[in-house]
TrEMBL record:
<protein>
    <recommendedName>
        <fullName>Major facilitator superfamily (MFS) profile domain-containing protein</fullName>
    </recommendedName>
</protein>
<keyword id="KW-0812">Transmembrane</keyword>
<dbReference type="GO" id="GO:0005335">
    <property type="term" value="F:serotonin:sodium:chloride symporter activity"/>
</dbReference>
<keyword id="KW-0472">Membrane</keyword>
<feature type="transmembrane region" description="Helical">
    <location>
        <begin position="341"/>
        <end position="361"/>
    </location>
</feature>
<feature type="transmembrane region" description="Helical">
    <location>
        <begin position="24"/>
        <end position="47"/>
    </location>
</feature>
<dbReference type="Pfam" id="PF07690">
    <property type="entry name" value="MFS_1"/>
</dbReference>
<feature type="transmembrane region" description="Helical">
    <location>
        <begin position="398"/>
        <end position="422"/>
    </location>
</feature>
<keyword id="KW-0813">Transport</keyword>
<dbReference type="InterPro" id="IPR036259">
    <property type="entry name" value="MFS_trans_sf"/>
</dbReference>
<feature type="transmembrane region" description="Helical">
    <location>
        <begin position="204"/>
        <end position="222"/>
    </location>
</feature>
<dbReference type="InterPro" id="IPR020846">
    <property type="entry name" value="MFS_dom"/>
</dbReference>
<feature type="transmembrane region" description="Helical">
    <location>
        <begin position="140"/>
        <end position="162"/>
    </location>
</feature>
<dbReference type="GO" id="GO:0043195">
    <property type="term" value="C:terminal bouton"/>
</dbReference>
<keyword id="KW-1133">Transmembrane helix</keyword>
<feature type="transmembrane region" description="Helical">
    <location>
        <begin position="275"/>
        <end position="294"/>
    </location>
</feature>
<dbReference type="InterPro" id="IPR011701">
    <property type="entry name" value="MFS"/>
</dbReference>
Amino acid sequence: MGAASDGMGGWRARIGALRESRKLVLVIVAIALLLDNMLLTTVVPIIPEFLYDIRHPDAPLSVSLEDLTTPLPSPTPYCPCLNKTLVDNNTQIPLNLTAEKEERHKELIHETVAVGVMFASKAIVQLLANPFVGPLTHKIGYSVPMFTGFILMFLSTLIFAFGRSYGVLFVARALQGIGSSCSSVSGMGMLAERYPDDKERGNAMGIALGGLALGVLIGPPFGGLMYEFVGKTAPFLMLSALALGDGLLQLMILQPGVVRQETEPPSLRALITDPYIIVAAGAITFANVGIAMLEPSLPIWMADTMEARRWQQGVAFLPASICYLIGTNLFGPLGHKMGRWLAACSGLVIIGICLILIPMARKLEHLIIPNAGLGFAIGMVDSSMMPELGFLVDIRHAAVYGSVYAIGDTAFCLGYAVGPAFSGALVNSIGFEWMLVIIAILNFAYAPFLLLLRSPPARDEKQSLIISEKSSVRYVSYQNEEE
């Protein structure tokens, strides 16, 4: 009996140690971001074609126009009159084919608008939910909103699996937005709280964003390949199973429950009116708006100009995803050394250059270098500005992070709301090429604003002296300026 009691006590001690582990919390946050963004991007190669095929059951996008045109029988060489008739008739085929291609081109441009609105719905709902989730974490802690995010994402995945109409899929995408808000704000706030040292926090957030990057990396090719060879339902059922595993892990390690903050949190208004926080958040928005515009428009542009197949439309995003994963892990620690403002500023310039290069592609291979550069540069900005937001709250407000990461997530969502919502209209009015050129110019124009973050002032000198013990490089320069 005593041995059993000792064994049970040892087991409880091990579970207690696991719950206190910062690394396990980091793993849970990274998995949550991975699954959220895998669902976000798995739909990219699936939904545009699925919706097109619903509306055009007699002429699905996967069937080429040449296949839909019934070829005439070969003329008999021994009958000159018959041969002449068939040759005359044959001259009509290219004209009909051209007319059908033109009609399909118009349909695809129209489809970009509907797909863009659906893709934007997730980000818009997440945008609306963030101002509520941030202050809520101050009152009840991070674990309950985190678990709520899992439940909503699980439901969203199941709806995607079985939805067969635009309206149902729209609801699934919007529901994912609320779940993402809960997961992202709570997850980043949890990491900022568990990693108070600025350098360690940057490394931890780089790893967590690596989970996000991995989701973005796996999502499009996973969705494209599964849709091509298995069908629409299977990839979402697999994602729902993975989400269920993450939920069980949260129950075991985080044990969701209400935890009240002891420190008085900064008001959302005080954070929104802080110019340094706004500059950092703005960099996240401008960095992500380009790729957000590409998500609904690039697969359709590829189908239109390259006659790309489903798997090719998914694989096109692979270089961006791989390099985003590299960029976030590299610039988590490197951004702290070189200056996060410089990393983000350089990233915005590289993003602008890559956006200009993308429309010059004429084959799938031509997209590799600009997409890779785009992903790497977005990783530079995200992994630099996310920990920068926590740092700015530390030195200028109070070390309570729910609201500031609500602002950071709102900035991220703003890019993904504006991008898809306007991409269809812009492609219709000015074309795919000019749309990307305009976004590139906006990135170039915003980059100089990041000079403001080179040495942001602390709330008071005492606060600066306390924090500088942890990381002397950045804060000593501020003190010298004051002297």
